[in-house]
Amino acid sequence: MAHVNCWLIKRVGGVLGLALTLSAQDGAATPQMNLLQTITAMCPAPNYIPPPEPDDVGLIWNKSNRYQLVIGVDEYALSPASNRAFVRRTAQTVSARLTELGFAPLPMFAMSKEPFLSGASATKEMIWQAVREMRQKTKGDDVGIIYYVGHGSITPSNADLTLATQDRPIASDEGIRVSDIVGELSLGEYRNNIQEIPKIILVLDTCYSGNFLGPDGKTTIVESAGIQRLTTIASGYPTPDKMVVLTATGQGTVNRAFELNGTGVSAFGFFFVRALAEDWACADTAADGVLTIREIYQFLSLRLQNARKLNLIEGTMRPLKRNNDENSFVFYDPKKYAVPGDRGALVALTALAPPGQITTLTLPDGTTQTCQPQCSAVLSRSLEGNLVLRTQQLLNMNSTIDLKGGLPIGGGKFPFPPPPPPENVVESLSLRDVITAGRHSWQGVTLTVK
Predict the structure, then answer these.
(1) Helices (H) and strands (E) in the chain, counts
(2) pLDDT, position 114
(3) Contact 42/23 with Cβ under 8 angstroms?
(4) Closest CA to 196 of 86, 77, 344
């Protein structure tokens, strides 16, 4: 049986501000502050330069709307002894940093004093309302991030995670199951052509959170009457390919999440936020301006390991991610570009049609573009599937013909009779073959890949 009150606290030293500056309460450095400075030493930044044009990653980033839903359940109406002040401060800090990176609060927060859920507002009903609005807002190219910090409990099935809410008991069969959140979000519209760009980023800063993932399994989600449900359980719940999940702890009943001594925020949240600004150069090991889940995971793992060695957290914390999420792009800063790095996972496909011809290009996910005379798309280099090309000659209604048996009165030419509709020519070809060759020609259409 998992412990209910999993957060362990040892309040020492100063409190962390929104800028994550390290300072002691009375201006004097404490031993904890000195230790924090040891593990937060900034890495030397490479020689950043403007990214090459066209900046494919930047184009994708700029045309998408980005939303945040930060939930910090710090108060419990039925269990006030479990209240944790640092949870709210963590939510506040995470939300502020996400705002700086262009992730806007959901519209439901427009009239709220704070752009995140905490205190009396973090009820089960309000959290569900926010999750549903996230699904509704992330259409097309849009991206959303959900960050939950608070109590987590293992469900009676031992394969799922329950997130505590302000108005329910902190128990394994109360609150909100993560699998239900995944099922709700999975009803949304997912894009498949760029596998590296997720639709939803789910971050769980709780005890036992790694139990939700488990080893990558083959469990599937099925839809019936507009509701998605899991068919089986096999060592953790499945998540859609366009959703990435990062947890603060690993698997098992002893994996807890802790406050970082001397900061007033959670250990995971402290380093997560620093990876997005102060420690970007440390986290972005590829130095390409893109932070992948793999890079954030490696950064957090090392920082939490060092924090444990220095006794800044009360126990070992090992974050967890899915193996197939490793290369997902989750944050981008064009001012932090030095080398191509992970950008090599994307390719730019261009189709050029000859004059007098209508050409449509259908991508592997079924989306279609009309090339008159040119169209283009950014795709994953590893994307499977076929490209479909359709061509038609344009009708020329001004065509004329000379009559040999005589000319119309007044001379000139008779109108040419309308021709039959032009033939629709179709070709289907492997995207992988086109990427490998770098170029393909067919019926006057030229495909190029860069």
Answers:
(1) 9, 24
(2) 94
(3) no
(4) 344
CATH number, domain 31-339: 3.40.50.1460
For residue 200, the SS3 value is strand
Specify the pLDDT at position 231. Answer: 42
CA 206 and chain centroid, separation:
19
d(CA 48, CA 56): 18
Q: Name the burial class of residue 369, with classes exposed (0-12), middle (13-18) and buried (19+) by CB atoms within 10 angstroms of its CB.
A: middle
Domain boundaries, the chain: 31-339, 346-398+420-449
- Residue 364: CB partners within 8 Å, gap ≥ 6? 192, 193, 379, 383, 384, 385, 386, 387, 431
Per-residue exposure over 260-288, b if at least 16 CB sit within 10 Å of its own CB, e if not: bbbbbbbbbbbbbbbbbebbbbbbbbbbb
Short-list 177, 116, 104, 111, CA closest to 144: 104
Instruction: Kindly report, residue by residue over 350-389, the tens digit of the pLDDT.
Output: 999 888 888 899 998 888 999 888 999 999 998 889 999 9
Q: How far is CA 251 from CA 145, 259, 320, 433, in A?
A: 23, 19, 8, 41
**Of residues 150, 158, 183, 154, the one with CA closest to residue 76:** 150
Q: Tokens 């402290």 label which residue?
A: 270
Q: Of 154, 160, 158, whose CA–CA distance to 172 is shortest?
A: 154
- Kindly report the CA angle at 275 between 272 and 281, in degrees rounded to 5? 165
- 261 within 8 A of 312, measured Cβ to Cβ: yes
Task: Give pLDDT < 50 ranges for the chain.
Answer: 1-4, 8-26, 216-225, 229-235, 397-407
